[in-house]
Design brief:
Layout (H helix, E strand, L loop, with lengths): L12 H4 L6 E5 L24 H15 L6 E2 L9 E3 L14 E4 L5 E6 L3 E7 L4 E7 L1 H6 L1 H11 L8 E4 L9 E2 L1 H10 L7 E3 L6 E3 L1 H11 L3 E4 L14 H7 L7 E7 L3
Length: 265
């Protein structure tokens, strides 16, 4: 049984340095919620087939851990895009904009992104009091969601050389086999992308390093970047994984959340 008492999110040393400036963050695991079965226990996926009551309670627990109201935990209708939303006030759960990143300079709003193998990235310019969160799967990362998030933060007054960006738990290269069309797409976009693939032992297939690719994109964009280095596929006790659920033939899968907020002074 997973712990069903309270969420205990993972934290990044890089982002923890911003805590004195009122920046709070957490990479939540699947622990500390009320869901059961394949969704045990902190599933926050509004689009999953889990009980809506359980998902709402799980989201409430996340909001408490972040020090905000349930209404001020802001998430998106994620669609593997490069679109970024600037958040000035919370929007209802049933009218979430379709996008994959969000930024704000307003204290008291917790920006959250959901993932179950894709890369959740949290951003902060503590001096400018600007934060962001991005859902960076392979498609979003390839098409620029990370760079677009940084640009949106700059429009709110951030400076990229001050931005700290942390990649949370996501699928590791050892567990991310892809086919020839995937490889071709990346190499056609940039021949240098070949370095993110290594042979998987199966003809025409390779193992893709989404973590390194993401960190390199962030570093080239001019921000300070680090990764937690936790694999969602390998650690079933702590994380939901779309690919693991697929390999097991499970009918659905849960989603964990990563969140960041500016505390109200």
């Amino acid at each position: 049984m997973l712990d069903t008492t309270r969420p205990e999110p993972l934290r990044s040393p890089l982002l923890d340095r911003a805590r004195d400036n009122g920046v709070r963050h957490g990479f939540f695991t699947r622990r500390g919620g009320v869901s059961t079965g394949i969704f045990e226990s902190l599933n926050v996926g509004l689009g999953s087939t889990d009980s809506s009551e359980s998902v709402r309670e799980n989201r409430r627990r996340v909001s408490v851990a972040m020090g905000v109201t349930a209404e001020d935990l802001v998430t998106l209708h994620q669609c593997h895009s490069a679109e970024v939303v600037t958040v000035e006030e919370p929007f209802p759960a049933d009218s979430r904009p379709k996008a994959d990143a969000l930024v704000t300079s307003r204290p008291g709003l917790a920006l959250g992104v959901l993932a179950a193998d894709c890369g959740p990235v949290l951003f902060a310019d503590a001096e400018a009091q600007v934060i962001g969160a991005a859902h960076a799967g392979w498609k979003g990362a390839l098409t620029g969601v990370l760079e677009n998030t940084i640009a949106a933060m700059e429009r709110l007054g951030a400076r990229r050389e001050r931005v700290a960006a942390v990649l949370g738990p996501s699928i590791s290269q050892e567990n991310y086999e892809v086919g020839p069309e995937f490889i071709e797409r990346f190499v056609q976009a940039d021949g240098g992308n070949a370095r993110y693939f290594r042979d998987s032992g199966r003809a025409g297939h390779a193992l893709f390093d989404l973590n390194l690719y993401t960190i390199d994109r962030l570093t080239r964009a001019g921000v300070k970047a680090e990764a937690l280095g936790r694999c969602t596929y390998a650690d079933g006790d702590c994380f939901f994984s779309y690919r693991r659920a697929t390999h097991r033939g499970e009918p659905d899968y849960g989603r964990q959340i990563s969140a960041i907020c500016l505390e109200v002074s």
